[in-house]
Each structure stands twice: as structure tokens, then as C-alpha cells.
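Lecture 7, part 2: worked example. A protein chain together with zinc ion.
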Amino acid sequence: MKTKAAVLYEANSPLVVEELDLDPPKEGEVLVKIGAAGICRSDWHYMAGESFMPLPAVLGHEGSGVVEEVGPGITSVKAGDPVILSFVSRCGRCHFCTIGRPNLCDVHMSTSTTMLDGTYRLHKGDTNFTPMSKLACFSQYSVVPEVACVPCPKELGLDKAAVIGCCVTTGVGAAVNAAKVEPGAAVAVVGCGGVGLNVVMGAKLAGARQIIAVDISEGALEFAMQFGATHAVNPGQQDGPGRVREITGGLGADYTFEVFGSAETVEMAYDMARKGGTVTVVGIPADGDVPSIDAVSLVRQEKTLKGTYYGSAQLQSDMPRMVDLYMNGQLDLDALITRNYHLDEINEAYADLNRGEVGRGVITRFD
Ligand SMILES: NC(=O)c1ccc[n+]([C@@H]2O[C@H](COP(=O)([O-])OP(=O)(O)OC[C@H]3O[C@@H](n4cnc5c(N)ncnc54)[C@H](O)[C@@H]3O)[C@@H](O)[C@H]2O)c1
Ligand SMILES: [Zn+2]
Ligand SMILES: [Zn+2]
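Predicted complex, written out as C-alpha cells:
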């Protein structure tokens, strides 16, 4: 069949929206009509030549849709089911899947630029198109692994389902699964975009007493206060770590999060943590942008520096929890989604992301 998709042919040039050929689903795969796709900075890293995958590629890894057709052997979903799409397709058998870390699945990682069987579903003539995260959801339709589909209720709405597919699970999970923020903690979140706002909401859910939003955009800081931040710090205008120490009675924060993706902001989050504090890195810096951490302070101040991928989540069970938290009014995803776009407007959507427009943009129209 044909599908209209946004193609990255070359870094630092606009995505091209055009018609591609899409193969039918093979065994263990599902054809999904994409309902919504979020504008996440992880796609931008490839567009800007900061991260690399074979090109041409169809990006989009924060998505949702409705199952249109299933391939052979599918039992967990059927045509008509709304699904959240997981940007990691766990194999269920590798070391990391069997120890309960499906977000780190080796088989998914070793086939990171193809489908699980090493082949492609999107083509044009002889050219194959890399499907980002096996989802390629900047497209009207996509063929995805069955294991990438997390069924969700119709009442959720496909825009909310899409953001649960990345920024919500990543951000809330960073606070509750990875850092394990506890009631009464002081938290600093460096970078309050789509993912960082979810770290703020996760810290609030965990009962943090201070949640310090740190961002160079005044708009992002004001917006973060609506999601539970108690203080705002602009490191473009003041000494960020110094101000965080002031707010926390001279100590530094118990938990800090880096949610932009640069060596400089990793170092800032590290400096903002108190002795014995935990620094959790969520953002993905450009390849080769390496933070410089003073190992002596790491030892003498007993800091913990850790990374978290996909909110260190149990994807199939944590995403339904995020759905319930939204349905119960404990995660404000309606306020999080600030902009809707047509697929044809995808380059403007990324320009808005880079201009620092607040909240999350989502593509909701694909016709
Ligand atoms: N670990 C994971 O599994 C995972 C998942 C999704 C996204 N990510 C990464 O998380 C990062 C954030 O993604 P996003 O979609 O929220 O991006 P975003 O563009 O929506 O938000 C980034 C925020 O950082 C702010 N910022 C920029 N420079 C800053 C500085 N020097 N100091 C403080 N704040 C600064 C921006 O103003 C913006 O508000 C990206 O690197 C993305 O690739 C990681
Ligand atoms: Zn993402
Ligand atoms: Zn696995």
C-alpha cells in the first residue's frame, strides 16, 4: 500500500513529505493507522546531525494509532484496537528482558535501524527507509512489531496516547523508577520541555517538597510552575547551581535531572546535587559532546550519576499506569499538549520546538 510520510534524506535539510510504499505486516507485526505523533527532541538530534542512523529515514517514535490489520500469529491486538506505540520492542528472551529490564532489550538495540528481522517495510523503488525505533510514526500508516503495541482505552484520546509513548513514560519514569524520588525530597529539573515537564509531574506525584525548574526560557519556567514546580531558576541570567543551593538551604538538591541533552547541562545538573545526591541524565547529548565530571567530587561528595532510558520502565505495565494517572486527573496531559499540527507542517513543528515554544507539540492530522 501507499503511505504519506515525512522523510529525512539529509541532516540539516528539511523533512520531505512524500508517498512511500509500505509492505504488509509480516509474522509478529501489525499495520497501524497512525493517530498522533509527538514532536520530541530525540528526532531532532538526527535532523540536526547530532545523532546518526542510515538515511533516508522516517522518524517519529512518540506515537499512537489504531490497528488496521494484523499479520500472521497475532493474538494480543486486533483490527480497531487503539494502541500506544512503544519505541522499544522487547524480545522477551535476551538477558535484559529476562532480568526485568525490557527497555534495555539487546535484540531491539542490535536491530535498532530495521525491523526485528533485520529488514524494512518502507520503500521507494530500490531504496529502503530506516524506520526510527521500528515505529516511523511520521507517516499515515506504519507496520510495527506486535510487541510495540500497548492497548489503551478509546476514551484516552490518541494525542494523549502518543505522548505516553515517549515523554510521559520517560519523564515520570525518570523520577519514580530511576531516581526513586521520595516524599519530602528537593528536586531540580534542568530543561523543562516536553520530557522535563513530566519529570516535574513525576516528582510531584512522588511527594517532593521542592521542585526547582531550571531552564533558559522564561516561558518554559512559567509553564513548569503550572505542573508543580515550586521555584524557577534561569541559568542564563543567574548562577544556576548557586541559586539551587540557596533555595535548598545551602545543601543542593537531593535529586537532579538533566533533561535537555548537552555536556554543559549534565555538568550543571551534577553541580546542583547535594553531597550524597543523585543526578539522573535523561537528555541525549550530541555524539562526542562529553561532560567533564570531577571524579574527586564524585568520591568525596558521594554523588550518584546515572542515566535512564525510557523512564527505566516496565513498558507493558507502566504505560497503562500512566493512562490511569491521566484519567484520575493526576497527570495533566491536556495542558502538556499545547500545539497540534498536520503532517505537512512537520518542519514548522520542529522550528517551534527549537524556538522553545512551551509544552508538547503533536501531529494529529495526516490526511
Ligand atoms: N532518556 C530517554 O529515554 C529519552 C526519551 C525522550 C527524550 N530524551 C531526550 O530528552 C531531551 C529533552 O527532550 P524534549 O523533547 O523534552 O526537548 P525540548 O526541546 O522539548 O525541551 C528541552 C528544554 O531544555 C531547555 N534548555 C535548552 N538549553 C538549556 C540550558 N542550557 N539550560 C537549561 N535548559 C535548557 C529548553 O529551553 C527546553 O525547554 C532530549 O535530549 C531528548 O532526546 C531522552
Ligand atoms: Zn521521545
Ligand atoms: Zn530482549
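The pocket of nicotinamide-adenine-dinucleotide (ligand 1) is lined by residues 40-42, 45, 166, 170, 190-196, 214-217, 220, 235, 259-261, 265, 282-284, 308-310, 353, 356 (CB under 6 Å). Residues 2-151+332-365 form a domain with the Quinone Oxidoreductase; Chain A, domain 1 fold (CATH 3.90.180.10). Keep this in mind for problem set question 3.
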